[in-house]
Structures are given as structure tokens and as C-alpha cells.
Amino acid sequence: MTYRVQEKYAVFIKHALLVVMVSYPALTILSHPLQAQSSTQVNIVGIPPVISSPYADDIESKFKSGQYQVIFNYSNFSSQPVDFVFDVALTRNNRILFEITSVPRAYTPGSYVFTSFFEEIQFRETSDDILGQLNRDLKTR
What we know:
Blueprint: H1 2-31, E1 39-45, H2 56-64, E2 69-75, E3 82-84, E4 87-92, E5 95-101, E6 105-107, E7 110-114, H3 117-120, H4 127-133, H5 136-139
Antiparallel strand pairs: 1-2, 2-7, 3-6, 4-5
């Protein structure tokens, strides 16, 4: 009879150790804050495959009138705001003509449509600063 009691205790101790060995890593993992995966997407819409006018003023007026829109989609399981910056670069023949970065701004998950992107998003550089980065030949085109 004593043998059976010792055997039952041994089985109980084995099960208890197994539960502790399995649950301890799970509890350790769950004690750290979990991060959800998020995703972002930026689309520029309204720009035709062939631009009707090669003049910068015409393109700028169409952009300012809202014909070309920037759509920013941000998804996350958390509703906490997150700071984002927008990097904007203009390239020609694989050469960067100018590159600017916006001031950080907090966004909560959702969709944002910017009809006047450069007026709605704050940049450190002014339009004169950007034009100053372009070479003279490109400005006159």
C-alpha cells in the first residue's frame, strides 16, 4: 500500500512539473507587451498616363485643385496614434532632383485623402527651398 501511495505522489509530481514547465514559458511570453502588425499604403490617383500639358504651372494648378489626390491608408489593431513622416522625392533619369521629408504627425488607423497634399502636410522646406534645389535648366522647362 505504501508503494502505491508513493507511486501516486510520483505521478502527481510529474504532472505538476509538466504543467509548470509548459505554463511558465507561456506566462513569461504573455507578461511582455504584445505588438500587433500594422500596414500602410500610399497611392497617388488622378494622374493620367500621358500628361496633357508639359508646363509645371498647369500641373501645379491641377494638383492644387484636387485633381491629383494622395490617399494614405493605415491599419492597425490598436487605436493608438502613431507618428508618421512622408518622404517625397522627384527623380528624372534615375537621378534624384529633390528629396524632402515631412514633419512627424500622429495618425490613428484609417484612410486619409489629401486633395492638397503639400498644403495639408507640413514640411520644413518651403516651395522656394525646393525650387532652389532644382538646376536652372529644369526650372525653365
